Amino acid sequence: MFWDEKVETLPKRELERLQLKRLKKTFLQVQNVEFYREKLKAARIRPSDIRTLDDIQKIPFTRKQDLRDGYPFGFFAVPLQQVVRIHTTSGTTGKPTVVGYTRKDLETWANLIARNMTMVGLSDCDVFQNMVNYGMFTGGLGFHYGAEKIGMTVIPSATGNTRRQIEMIQDFGVTAIHCTPSYAMHLAEVAEEMDARLESLTTGLFGAEPWSGSMRTELEKKLGVTAFDSYGISELFGPGVAFECPERNGLHIWHDCYLVEIINPATGEVLGDGERGELVVTPLVKEAMPLLRYRTGDITMRFEDDCLCGRAKKVSRITGRSDDMLVIRGINVFPSQIEHVLLKIPEVGNQFMVYVDRINHLDEMTIDVEINRDYFSGELQDLARIQKKVVKELRDTLELRTTVKLVEPGSLPRFEGKAKRVIDRRGEI
Ligand code: DLL
After folding, report:
1. Which ligand 1 atom is nearest residue 297's CA?
2. Nearest CA to 292 among 60, 49, 19, 52?
């Protein structure tokens, strides 16, 4: 179950030695980027100042806004001739963030994906359907080349036409699928409608957005797969940064390639193991676009112990983004918490939309959720009962009063890519 056993199980000392060597090299590489030359000069940090891994704390953070300001190629550390591919980040407002890859970067990235897929037990015996966007999004081509590297039979089905996707799973005997968890849920619903059995499936790789433990249970039940969480971010190649092993209680982030820090997002203070905060990553092996102390905005924590599988310390699954977190009347709310609550209530479905408004200077959260006909008598009284129940469960978990609207099954939007379940209208006039 190892793609590169020696590296994946390096003893702590050796790992730290490798990390420091690579950090020093990265520090030299970023000198080719004007942003870093100026920033490091202003902070009066020279290569000779990086003597231990802790010295990284002397270096200022890099933020997504910095990358946007450098649009399009301001963060490339090699001439464009050496950049063989470009991706951009998905769905942000304004200019996207551009990421570039040298030929060696693509090779490194494919090997990281191969590590992840091998770790969960996939091999050249598997038939793999890759149901994510193959365009500028890193998920499509990223997984594609990793899967080919280990010799899987790859079906580049991309997104769309869910009925056809289901037919292909059946006709080609697909054993492993990759998509966003929200699309997996939609796939399961359509398969149910079609009365289609997906007997060949064994493994589901789901990621690119947060999803809860209850969503995992639901997906495993509906699709008959073992579901693994896959974490990635375009600025750090794309998918493949961290992945669950068969223990499935946290994400293995590849420490030989990514130097991890967890910080308090408000103060920038570096936190210890077991403390939840924002993930900050310094990639150690990137050529075209090296970065220093990149603030991912993702909330997690580092575990104290190594994993039973033989690999080093994990981080917890991502509970949300520091900047996606909703503050409703002073209370922090993660959309994944809402999903978690709804999945536990059989009378409602698992699709929902959250609207946040400011009414008379007060934040109001409205949640549209689909009724589940199997548990609904059709009586108005019953509707009121279900609505009350959802409000109560949400209040118990979120410690927040919400308005719940029950809507017809199938009436809320389904998403092929990342779900956009929160519409925050507080900024609007
Ligand atoms: O979403 C790369 C990817 C593709 C990951 C396919 C996994 C599978 P971006 O579009 O740059 O890259 O979005 C990165 O998505 O900072 C997180 O906030 C969120 N995210 C990604 N994976 C997970 C996950 C790809 N497993 C942003 N759990 C990140 C929670 C995730 N959030």
Report:
1. 16
2. 60
**What are the phi and psi torsion angles at 218 (to 5°)?**
-65, -45
Report whether residue 100 contacts ligand 1, using a CB cutoff of 6 Å: no
CA distance 403 to 171: 45
- Is 369 part of any domain? yes
Indicate the pLDDT class of residue 91, thresholds 50, 70 and 90: very low
My answer on whether 105 and 240 are in the same domain is: yes
What residues make up the domain containing 371?
Answer: 331-424
Taking CA atoms, 285 is separated from 72, 236, 319, in Å, by 22, 10, 27
Query: Structure tokens of 56?
Result: 């990284």
- Find out whether the beta carbon of 139 lies less than 6 Å from any atom of ligand 1: yes
pLDDT digits (tens, 9 = 90+) for 31-42: 999 999 999 999
Residue 148 lies in a domain: yes
Q: Is 240 in the pocket of ligand 1 (CB under 6 A)?
A: no
318 in contact with ligand 1, CB cutoff 6 A:
yes
Token match 């900047």: residue?
323
In short, whether 209's Cβ falls inside 6 Å of ligand 1 is yes
Per-residue pLDDT tens digits for 292-348: 999 999 999 999 999 999 999 899 999 877 876 787 876 778 888 898 899 999 999
- On whether both 285 and 413 belong to a single domain, the answer is no
Are 181 and 215 a contacting pair, CB within 8 Å?
Answer: yes
Strand partners, 128: 154, 176
pLDDT digits (tens, 9 = 90+) for 142-155: 999 999 999 999 99
Q: Is residue 52 domain-resident?
A: yes
Same domain, 160 and 264: yes
Q: Where are the alpha helices (DSSP H) in 177-261?
A: 181-194, 213-223
State the total domains in the chain.
Answer: 2
395 CA distance to ligand 1 centroid (A)? 29
Q: What is the pTM of this model?
A: 0.86
Can the peptide bond before residue 335 be classed as cis, meaning omega within 30 degrees of 0?
no
**Is 233's C-beta closer than 6 angstroms to any atom of ligand 1?**
yes
